[in-house]
Amino acid sequence: MKAPVLSSFLGAGALIAGLILAGPLVAGPERIAFPENFETEWVLYNQVDRADRKRVRFIYVKPEADAEAKPGQPAPNGTVLVMADRNAKVDADENPVLDADGRMIPEGDFTAIFVMEKQEGWGESVGLEVAPNGDWDYAAFLPDGTLNPETNTAGCFACHTRRTGKDFTFTYFQNVADRAK
């Protein structure tokens, strides 16, 4: 392993270890509310097939924030992103079934709903000292809309910290830039 890769790998490991030792960084229901009607009233901007998990991820953004988003700029305060998972249809050998376009076919209801929300000053109160994520916070909900009490959002902070140049998002920052072309 080359030195920069090794140091990045070790740095990420130290960050994750620090998050685990720091304990759960769980957003409370007063901090991030369940995104009502996201499937029907929000902007679906991406769909990701996760063959490794046999899941199809649907990624939505709150329409008002999406209308304010500017290419190359951080998402505006008030932005809410939702990643909602559904199981993929599988064949008799438990392999995902693909449609005519080579995409996995989702079936059933959502199995998990993950939310990241950005509000001014949030980075100062949760996670900033452990894993800087700007003013984003994270929550996971069960399909019935209740906060998942078993979720430790430290993993969210750790993973998204690597995306500093993309406003801590994996797909949204790029989506806004691509639409402007």
What does this protein look like?
Pfam families: Cytochrome_P460 (PF16694). The chain is of the alpha+beta class and 181 residues long. It has a single domain, classed as Chalcone isomerase (3-Layer(bba) Sandwich). 28% of the residues lie in helices and 24% in strands. The protein is built from six helices and five strands, in the order H-H-E-E-H-E-E-H-E-H-H. Strands 1-2-3-4-5 form a five-stranded antiparallel β-sheet. A hairpin with a 4-residue loop joins strand 1 and strand 2. Helix 1 packs antiparallel against helix 5. The termini are far apart. The relative contact order is 0.19.
Name its key features.
181 residues, alpha+beta, Chalcone isomerase, five-stranded antiparallel sheet, 24% strand, globular, disordered N terminus
Mind sketching the topology for me?
Layout: H1 3-22, H2 38-41, E1 43-50, E2 55-61, H3 63-68, E3 80-88, E4 106-118, H4 122-125, E5 136-141, H5 154-161, H6 172-180
Antiparallel strand pairs: 1-2, 2-3, 3-4, 4-5
Helix pairs in contact: 1-5
Brief write-up:
With 181 residues, the protein is α+β, with helices and mostly antiparallel strands. The chain has helices at 3-22, 38-41, 63-68, 122-125, 154-161, 172-180, and strands spanning 43-50, 55-61, 80-88, 106-118, 136-141.
